[in-house]
Design a protein that fits this description.
Elements (H helix, E strand, L loop, with lengths): L2 H19 L6 H8 L3 H8 L2 H23 L6 H18 L1 H10 L7 H28 L6 H24 L5 H14 L1 H5 L9
Length: 205
C-alpha cells in the first residue's frame, strides 16, 4: 500500500480515537489497532503522540477552513454569503464530529502547542468573516463608513457564537446544519431586537 494511503488511514484512526477518547486517554495502541497497522509503524510514519495529535489538528482545521471558503461565492449579496459560509461550517462540523471535538475541546484544553494551532485556525476564519461583515456594511450604507474595528469585533462575536452553537448542535438530537445556521442568521443578521418582535430572516425570501 502506498505510504500516503497508509498514513491517511492512520490519521483517520487517530482523529476518531482522539475525538472520542480525548488526547490523554487515547493510546497509540488503540490508534494502531483501529488503523490495522502495528504500533511501531505508527511511530515510524508519525513520530510521536504529540506530533500525531498536532497533525490531526492541522488536517481538521485546514479541512474546515477549506469547506467554509469554498461555499462562499463573492458575487452573492452579503447575507447570502454569510448564510452559505455558516451552512458550510455547521455541515462540516456535523459530518466530522470527531474532528470538531479535537478542534473545539481537546486541543484547547491541553495547552501549547495545540492551543496555538487552533488559535491560528480561528484567526483565519475570523479574518474571513470580518471581510464578509465589511461587505455587508458597505451594502447597507452604500459607502465604506463601517469601521474595521467594528467589523472585527462583530466577527469575533459571530465566530464564537458559531463554535458554541456547533458544539450544542452536535450534542442535541435532531438539530441539522441548516437549522443551526438559520438560528445564528436570525440572531446576527436580523438582530436580536427584531427577532424578539417576530421578524425572521429566511433563505427562501
Amino acid at each position: 500500500m502506498p505510504r500516503a494511503v497508509r498514513e491517511q488511514q492512520m490519521m483517520d484512526a487517530a482523529v476518531r480515537t482522539f475525538g472520542q477518547r480525548g488526547y490523554r486517554a487515547a493510546s497509540m495502541d488503540e490508534i494502531a489497532e483501529l488503523a490495522g497497522v502495528s504500533k511501531p509503524l505508527v511511530y515510524l510514519y508519525l513520530n510521536s503522540k504529540e506530533e500525531l495529535f498536532t497533525a490531526c489538528i492541522r488536517r481538521e482545521a485546514a479541512a474546515l477552513i477549506a469547506a467554509v471558503r469554498a461555499a462562499v461565492r463573492p458575487g452573492l449579496p452579503a447575507d447570502r454569503q454569510l448564510w452559505a459560509g455558516l451552512t458550510a461550517f455547521f455541515t462540516h462540523t456535523a459530518e466530522n464530529p470527531d474532528g470538531w471535538a479535537i478542534l473545539h475541546r481537546q486541543a484547547r484544553t491541553h495547552g501549547e502547542p495545540f492551543a496555538g494551532e487552533v488559535a491560528a485556525m480561528r484567526a483565519d476564519i475570523t479574518a474571513f468573516v470580518t471581510g464578509l461583515i465589511g461587505v455587508a456594511a458597505c451594502e447597507a450604507r452604500q459607502e465604506p463608513s463601517f469601521g474595521e474595528r467594528d467589523a472585527a469585533g462583530l466577527a469575533q462575536a459571530l465566530v464564537g457564537a458559531a463554535e458554541s452553537l456547533a458544539g450544542w448542535a452536535n450534542e442535541t438530537p435532531g438539530v441539522c446544519a441548516t437549522e443551526a445556521a438559520a438560528t445564528l442568521m436570525n440572531f446576527a443578521w436580523t438582530g436580536l431586537g427584531n427577532l424578539m418582535e417576530g421578524e425572521r430572516w429566511s433563505p427562501s425570501r
